[in-house]
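User: My collaborator and I are trying to settle a disagreement about how two of our proteins should look. Neither of us wants to argue from intuition anymore, so we agreed to look at predicted structures for both before our next call. Could you fold the first one, then the second, and keep them clearly separated?

Assistant: That sounds like a sensible way to settle it. I'll keep them separate. The first protein:
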Amino acid sequence: MVDKDVLVINIPCIGEDLNNELNKKVDEYNKIIHKLCKDYSFKLVDFNFWQKSQLKINTNKYFISKKPFKMVLDSIFVRSPIISNIVSKKRNLVTTIDGVHLNDHSARKLAELIKEKISSK
């Protein structure tokens, strides 16, 4: 890794319920990722921290549909940022369109955080 900068993005929340079991596991893995970044001087984009700051007041339990047809429709219709934002708002979600995939606002924030980290020394 000599003369190379390594940029690591930690695991985002899975579902917008911060207290669900998946997010507890994500927290465990992110602690390990944080330690490895510190130990090896990798740059860490802590997207999970930002996402949690947005979700603190959200109690929405919506999570990806278990109905295959609805999942297919989601994958077709939410490709446009405009539509994905409408779907996200309709479902009362803050950072995602379905509990997993980022909405336009979150995708832009992730890009901004990456740009800031790349620009920093």
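The second protein, kept apart from the first:
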Amino acid sequence: MTISDLREAMDMDMEVSFDYKGINYFIEPDAKSDKWMIFCSLKPDVPLFMTMNEVLDMKIDDMPLKEVLPLVTNAIY
């Protein structure tokens, strides 16, 4: 999965999920705003609310998302 794949899926308001280092991440559009909800299996009931640009710029393990995405497994979108 690449950052372009994620951007394209988000442009179509698609849900995206992937695993990285045994942790599941799930991204879905928030029906009540223009933000996205990001869920992590470490805190499954506590979503982060971010704009599309914030999601694309976020870091996981101190690495930019664009560097993490090619390493993920079980990517679904």
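Some points you might bring to the call about the second protein. The beta strands are 16-20, 23-29, 36-40, 43-50, 59-60, 63-64, 73-76. Residues 3-11 form the longest helix (9 residues).
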